[in-house]
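Supplementary Note 3. Input sequence used for the single-chain structure prediction.
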Amino acid sequence: MSATLIDGRAIARAVREEVAREVAAFTAQTGIVPGLATVLVGDDPASAVYVANKRRACVEAGMRDLHRHLPADAPEAEVVALIEQLNADPAVSGILLQLPVPAPLDGARLTGLIDPDKDVDGLTPMSVGRLVRGTPGLRPCTPAGVIELLDRSGVALEGAEAVVVGRSDLVGKPLLHLLLARNATVTACHSRTRDLAAVARRADVLVAAVGVPRLIGADAVKPGATVIDVGINRTDDGLVGDVDFDAVRAVAGKITPVPGGVGPMTIAMLLRNTLEAARLQHGRAAGRDPAGR
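The predicted structure, written as discrete structure tokens, is reproduced below.
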């Protein structure tokens, strides 16, 4: 058996096209053009590339690019003032502070200052609370992208046993709650899990998000399971995931490649979040429910 590939690039492209159509319809209905404010502090080359990709995707989806760039030595007060300004600006639908920020700035504290209705990364304490409570709000992009991949690949989550390897605040923990919200039975694995392979082998849906190259081998996968590889690791062999792709593909039913799996979904879901943020704020201004409907 050779697993069916889940094509993240194709699914991300479909999501982006859908968002572009919805943006056009929203603008025609309300007169509001959603705007994304990316905030880059410093000149880290990798961060600059990530932000450039997000800005380009934003424009392609018909949204306003409201980028802000501060020098690496910007004092914390200046960054705080910028975030407060963007929070108050009705032209700004979504705010994204590119992490990491230069020392001695505190990225977590600064992110926490973002209006949760504009928090398109889904990382503020209020956004986390909304996720845990299951109330409407903006969800972290990569975990939301995983759910989108599963849905569009026809993977049934209700009643399924899901195992998430990794408990980071960015991926693992939020994904647990997103899976629970879909009525999956969820197990979290981490560095202290005893007999990781045995626990992972129970999964109908196995997600690897721990940042260890090829950690998940064929012995950790139930035959026919769906395997989602969130890991991106640079090695002498190039980019590899947290899953031993060649070995696991012979056992799994469906699998994401690295690259070309989860990665493209992150920006696609960022665009969706920016549109949802515009809806939230429009609904709030109109006195409708918190979801903006």
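The mean pLDDT is 95. The radius of gyration is 19 Å.
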